[in-house]
Amino acid sequence: MEVSVSAGNSVGVQTLAESGLAHVPSQYIQPPENRPVSFSCRKTSDSGIPVIDLFNFDPQRSDEMCQELRRGCSDWGAFQVRNHGVPKRLLEDMIKVGLTFFKECSVAEKCKYSCDPNSAASEGGVVEEYSDHIKELALKLMSMISESLGLQSSCIEDIVGEVYQNITISYYPPCPQPELTLGLQAHSDIGAITLLIQDDVGGLQVLKDDEWVTVQPLSDAIVVILADQTEIMTNGQYRSAQHRAITNSHRSRLSVGTFHDPSKTRKIAPAAPLISEDSPAKYKEVTYGDYVSSWYTKGPEGKRNIDALLLHQ
Ligand SMILES: O=C(O)CCC(=O)C(=O)O
Ligand SMILES: [Fe+2]
């Protein structure tokens, strides 16, 4: 397993915000159709991503919780989990590590941390302990997701192979004109599965039926976001979530995303048991490294990267 830690692109934005701007610089202004306001006026038909209690959860029993898992994976591509086995103290400590980093380190120190994950990982051992727990949970979720589709519990993990873990701490300073911009533009994650924690401010939104729905911050929960490789492996039965982050004018926000990816040489294709004459493969096989390169060429916007692999467009 490989772990790396980075501060995403938050450092530059933080430096800009701290210079006391009254207006959002023009390069950060979104076209009207992408701005948060046009969506917040809409009626929200669904109350939000499912919240699943993993205490005594058995995916082979088709009880209410299992249905919620399937609903989360197929309708949203995202859900929250509670009683996930990661100590609440560790979630709080990880958020504190992120805050300390953004509030107390100099720009030079931040850049060093971004480039040298080991210095961040040695932060009182918190990052290491957190990544170990999160990896265990990610593997458990991969097996639950496999079983919920009637697959062998190891099916998704077998396709993914060795899991590469990457932690990104994102800091969104208060924004003078939050209605004109986004903290992070709409995208789907490219790997297999993302586990995210956030502070109590809120700002993560998931797209459902053309509506942006805010993910309610829950202090004991972990947000699970299915990424593109899971959509491919499940042959589209489960979807990767399109998500984004909005900002607000009065409080900064911090999130910690942990991405779980296949190795660059791994070939990812729909799981064989899901393919039949009645249910043909919807996605071409792809080498994960090629998928990543195409992402860097095309950029993160929406889901156009995975759409390029569709066999029948
Ligand atoms: O900050 C958030 O809530 C979202 C972060 C995210 O989606 C990402 O880093 O890919
Ligand atoms: Fe993301």
List keywords for this structure.
single chain, 313 residues, alpha+beta, Jelly Rolls, 7-stranded mixed β-sheet, binds fe (ii) ion
Structure description:
By secondary structure, the protein is an alpha+beta fold. The protein has a single domain, classed as Jelly Rolls (Sandwich), CATH 2.60.120. 35% of the residues lie in helices and 20% in strands. It contains 11 helices and 13 strands. The protein has a 7-stranded mixed β-sheet with strand order 1-4-11-6-9-3-2. Strands 5-10-7-8 form a 4-stranded antiparallel β-sheet. Helix 4 crosses helix 7. It is globular. 40% of the residues are buried. Residues 187, 189, 243 line the site of fe (ii) ion (FE2).
How would the blueprint of this fold be written?
Layout: E1 2-6, H1 10-18, H2 36-40, E2 51-53, H3 64-76, E3 78-82, H4 88-104, H5 107-115, H6 117-121, H7 126-148, H8 155-160, E4 164-172, E5 184-187, E6 193-198, E7 204-208, E8 211-214, E9 222-226, H9 228-233, E10 243-245, E11 253-261, E12 267-268, E13 286-287, H10 288-298, H11 304-307
Parallel strand pairs: 1-4, 2-3
Antiparallel strand pairs: 3-9, 4-11, 5-10, 6-9, 6-11, 7-8, 7-10, 12-13
Helix pairs in contact: 4-7
The protein binds 2-oxoglutaric acid (AKG) and fe (ii) ion (FE2).
Strand content: 15-25%
What general form does the structure show? Answer: globular
Q: Which ligands are bound?
A: 2-oxoglutaric acid, fe (ii) ion
CATH architecture: Sandwich
Q: Any idea how many domains?
A: 1
Mean pLDDT: 87
Q: Extract low-pLDDT stretches.
A: 38-44
- Superfamily (CATH H level) name: B-lactam Antibiotic, Isopenicillin N Synthase, Chain
